[in-house]
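Q&A log
Question type: sequence-to-structure
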Amino acid sequence: MEEGKFVLWAQVRTGTPQMKMDNQGLLRPNGWPDGGRLVYLGDVTQSVLSSLGPHPPPDFIDSPGFDEQRWTISAQSNDLKILIRSESYWGFGLFARCYLNRIEIIGSRNAAARIAFDIIASLGRDPWNTTFPFAFKRKTGLSINNHKSNWTELINAGKFELAENIELIADQYRKLLGKVDKKGDRHLVEVNANIKTARQALHDRNAPAVSRALSRAETELVLANPKTRSDLEEQMKITEEEIPFVDLTESE
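Response status: OK
Response body:
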């Protein structure tokens, strides 16, 4: 899928969590044993990085100086790259609410949409709702309505993709109804329960929960179908046999 660039702006509410920049210019936890320079990451960037999934420590492109909340970092996970710039847009940046984040997502539209959806879910608020609207508009060059449109366009695309994935599983479930044995019927009950869980998670904007529910539903679908059940059961049996047994009952 063709790579694109998607730029979103967000209002920061809190400067926490506090983090560190190590001697190699990498973002580290605040308790990093080798010390480092203090960084105020902020609630928006925390949500972005958690939405990115597993990734190496982000790199600082622009390091924090006297202002620990002014910086630029780069993070990457698989084919998705994100650049985040934190800077004040009102006054002298005395409070966290005086800051904004510019989020540049480089990757496929589907990946960008999923990230935007996850950010909103993690953040728990609309990032285009600003503390100082006029100053935000002046700094970004876009109206609040423009910002809302940019965010919601990606969010809706992400939601649509997840909804499609749910319906694909639901369609497979419907096709198996009345065509499996009693053992398969029990697995179909679990499929249906996980489809309902996925739909509720989508309503709650909880993309990770949607993915977990769909993964469980897919496994139950395979187990429900007598034609595919034996293969998966054999794989599961082999996996269990490969797990070493450790007796923790013996005293040292």
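Response note: The mean pLDDT is 91.
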